[in-house]
Each structure stands twice: as structure tokens, then as C-alpha cells.
Specification:
InterPro entries: DUF998. Keywords: Membrane, Transmembrane, Transmembrane helix. Pfam families: DUF998. The protein has 205 residues and is mainly alpha-helical. It has one domain. Helices cover 70% and strands 0% of the residues. The longest helix is centred in the middle third of the chain and has 28 residues. The radius of gyration is 18 Å and the shape is globular.
Length: 205
Amino acid sequence: MRVPAPDPRSVASTLVLGSLAHFLLAAVAVQALRPEYDPWLAPLSLYLSGAWSAWLRAGYYGLALGIVLLALELRRTLEPRARYALVPVLLCGGALALAATAAWPGPAPGYPVDDLEALVHRIAAMAAFLLVGSGMLLQSAALHRDPHWRGRALAALLLALLAFAGLWLHALWRELPRGASQKAVVALYLSWLWLCAWRLRTAPR
């Protein structure tokens, strides 16, 4: 009996969802395992150095790969009128910046870094949020042109708008607790990525 080949849509979607779940698990677990930091005040970057940091860095790298895979699958499966050539460029560029954020952690208590490493980390973190957020917005604005995505287009657009607005609120309102506000923005980004990855499971070939 001939075994049917796995559906590329399902494989890609599963890999992306797995990367999102692993990142979320790593982020939550590492914060629970590092009681020296207050999660309300400490941004995720502080957990990229020290105990259990390798797990979180692996989560960053896996998430970066998941974003690249999602960008390529959206490009492959969406109808031409729902595609923008710039979207995969933005998403993949943001994924590379995310990986660089983990590769060059910023300064943390007891884990100093030199000025160049700190600068690379800051620029990479800003680029990751801005590039992925811009890709989310641009893609969401066009999803309604694909009949398969029409039922999810509004939800995707609202999530993208909330995520991008939250990013700027986090950046400009410095009185907000840095850990909580950053993680709220990250949660919105992850929600958008999850929605799109889940919808890919039923995308037409």
C-alpha cells in the first residue's frame, strides 16, 4: 500500500506552532526558575544570561526559524492578490534580528557585556520588533483578498494593530513596568503568529 506524502501545509504549520509553543514554554519556565528577577519589572533580555539562559536562547532561535517558515508558507499559499513581496523580507529580516538578539545578550546583573555587544543587542531587539510588526501589519491588510483567509483577516489585522500600538506604547511610555509591558507586546505578536500558523493547516494547495 502506498503511503500518502505528508501535506506540506500541515507539516509547516505544525513546525511553526511547535516553535511558538517551545518559546512560550521556555520564557515562562525560565522566569519561574530565576526568582532573583521580578517578572513584572525584568524584560526577557535579562534571562538570556545566567542559569537556564541556554533554554531561552534556544526558544529565540526556534521562534526565528518558525517566523521564517511562516513567511515562506504565506508567500507560497496565499493568492497572488493577497501577497506583498515585502512581507517575507520584513518577516525574515525580523527573524534574523531576533536570532541576533539571543546571540548577543545585553547586560544583566552579574553578566556585563562590552559596549559593542550591548549596542548590537539593542539594535537587534528594536529591529526584530519593528520588522516583524511591520510585516504583520502589511500582510494583515491584504489577507481579505484571499477567500480562504477572509474569515480571519479582521482578527489578524486587529492583532497586528494592537501589537504595533503596544510596541510604541512600551517604547515611549517609560513609566510602564518594563517587564510586564514588553511581555504583553510579545504575547500579541505570538497571538498573531499562532493565528496565521493555525489557519495555514487548511490552506488550499
